[in-house]
Amino acid sequence: MKNEGIEGTERFESPEKGRGLLAVRHFAVGELVFACPAYSYVLTVNERGAHCEHCFTRKEDLFKCGKCKQAHYCNVDCQRGDWPMHKLECVAMCAYGENWCPSETVRLVARIIVKQRVTTERTLSERLLLLKEFESHLDKMDNEKQEMNQADIAALRYFYSKHISDLPDEQALTELFTQVNCNGFTIEDEELSHLGSAVFPDVALMNHSCDPNVIVTYKGTVAEVRAVQEINPGEEICDSYIDLLYPTEDRRERLLDSYFFSCQCTECTSRSKDKAKMEIRKLSAPPEAEEISSMVCYAKNVIEEFRRAKHYKTPSELLEMCELSLEKMGAIFADTNVYMLHMMYQAMGVCLYMQDWDGAMSYGEKIVQPYSSSVLSRCDE
Ligand SMILES: [Zn+2]
Ligand SMILES: [Zn+2]
Ligand SMILES: [Zn+2]
């Protein structure tokens, strides 16, 4: 493919910002800036049977791969289209049975390696940025990340070496995994539940802002970048890499830890929305600053603890964790405080899982109001 770029946009390089994407014409709110097919993608294991592995369509009457009985497809065309990737796993899943458990990143990287071998030209996903050009930030990896990287490489060799001849050497794999960790995307459906992982090189070209002018949504395995603010020629086009619900300090920690930069956007400088996000309960005696900061600390720990607990605790134990933390935080935080909202959202998820509809509804009602007002405030600006 000849490199024709993306109409209305331009790649730029600058000493301060590195590279990024620039608008060269006007985009109205809601307008599609560009669409980018996935370079490689993988459906998450939990959604097997509900979505087609090839096009991600959600359907009732998908049919199974006759060999592994795990992958599901719309029709023979989807099955054929997926075979170059599915064949890496089909036989292995039968052979390993329940012991087949590579992580989603490992599965995605295996697909990228195979795709790179059969692709000789620039793909439609790389009109402005090649996958090979992804930043890896190898020098910024701490021990914990290095260990995870090693574990991923070991799993890739263990589960895939039979089906991918001469895997790249250790150094090349380390680089590829770090590139995918910094530039990979998770594909979500309209309800924001996780469908899979993918790489979209042109989408990865955009820099982050906590006050983004575009958002990324997905249609099947295609990413769509749409303007959520008016964009004028000469302005940089930025999306957000993270959940913007949280206050400045949390966002900056998250960006530094996962993407290795400290955000200098207008929202991080003005911190204009932090006060609303950190709403304190109206009490006759307002809490001391120290009480508030120790509660924030508690909230962050409990969120992290809950994230881990999801893998080994029972639903009723998880619900108890939510209730206890909400009671404790509720002494200081208002119901609209983001940490309260986070735990209520988790509690609602557990209730739904336990088919406790009344419980889910009561949390849902408390969440909906602040969430919708935060959406409104975005559009009003
Ligand atoms: Zn399909
Ligand atoms: Zn199969
Ligand atoms: Zn920021």
From TrEMBL:
Enzyme nomenclature, EC number: 2.1.1.354
GO CC annotation: cytosol; nucleus
Domain SET: 7-242
Catalytic activity: L-lysyl(4)-[histone H3] + 3 S-adenosyl-L-methionine = N(6),N(6),N(6)-trimethyl-L-lysyl(4)-[histone H3] + 3 S-adenosyl-L-homocysteine + 3 H(+); L-lysyl-[protein] + S-adenosyl-L-methionine = N(6)-methyl-L-lysyl-[protein] + S-adenosyl-L-homocysteine + H(+)
GO MF annotation: an example: histone H3K4 trimethyltransferase activity
Keywords recorded for this protein, A-Z: Cytoplasm, Metal-binding, Methyltransferase, Nucleus, S-adenosyl-L-methionine, Transcription, Transcription regulation, Transferase, Zinc, Zinc-finger
GO biological process terms held by the UniProt record: methylation
MYND-type domain sequence ranges: 52-90
Domain of life (superkingdom): Eukaryota
Pfam families: SET, zf-MYND
Subcellular location: Cytoplasm, Cytosol; Nucleus
Stated role: Protein-lysine N-methyltransferase that methylates both histones and non-histone proteins, including p53/TP53 and RB1. Specifically trimethylates histone H3 'Lys-4' (H3K4me3) in vivo. The activity requires interaction with HSP90alpha. Shows even higher methyltransferase activity on p53/TP53. Monomethylates 'Lys-370' of p53/TP53, leading to decreased DNA-binding activity and subsequent transcriptional regulation activity of p53/TP53. Monomethylates RB1 at 'Lys-860'.
Protein name from the UniProt record: [histone H3]-lysine(4) N-trimethyltransferase
Gene: smyd2a
